[in-house]
Automatic annotation (TrEMBL):
Entry's family note: Belongs to the HesB/IscA family.
NCBIfam families, per database record: iron-sulfur cluster assembly accessory protein (TIGR00049)
Database matches in InterPro entries: ATAP, ATAP_core_dom, Fe-S_cluster_asmbl/transfer, FeS_cluster_insertion_CS, HesB-like_dom_sf
Organism: Sphingobium agri
Protein's name in the database: Iron-sulfur cluster assembly accessory protein
A family per Pfam: Fe-S_biosyn
Organism domain of life: Bacteria
Domain (Core) ranges: 17-116
Length: 120
């Protein structure tokens, strides 16, 4: 009887973080409230198009969250949101008037005029 071996391969992260986004996560973790273990991205239902991006501190790891180790801290993706985010790039952009995370999401089929929400 021959034994079969299952080989697993590392899968790419659902979301690619730019160096600027990784730096922002590091900055957030330096000023994080006590008990925060990382920063978490989720896609709650909100806005005129249906889903929105939400980035918040997280104090405990949820079973199905995707975990991405970055140089400045742990970045989590809500397990229920991964499907909507696979293949996305997350960047941190600052200019004279605004600063925020910007998402290039190939799964988004449309967005609202203000850019707050998206559809898949």
């Amino acid at each position: 009887m021959t034994e079969t071996t299952t080989k697993t391969r590392a899968r790419p992260a659902a979301v690619i973080l730019t160096p600027s986004a990784e730096q922002r996560i590091a900055d957030l973790m330096r000023q994080a409230p006590e008990g925060a273990i990382g920063v978490k991205l989720s896609t709650p239902r909100r806005g005129c198009s249906g889903l929105a991006y939400s980035v918040d501190y997280v104090t405990e790891e949820a079973k199905f969250d995707e975990k991405i180790e970055t140089p400045g801290g742990v970045f989590y993706i809500d397990g229920a949101s991964v499907l909507y985010l696979v293949g996305s790039t997350m960047d941190w952009v600052e200019d004279d008037f605004t600063a925020g995370f910007v998402f290039n999401n190939p799964n988004a089929k449309g967005s609202c005029g203000c850019g707050e929400s998206f559809t898949v």
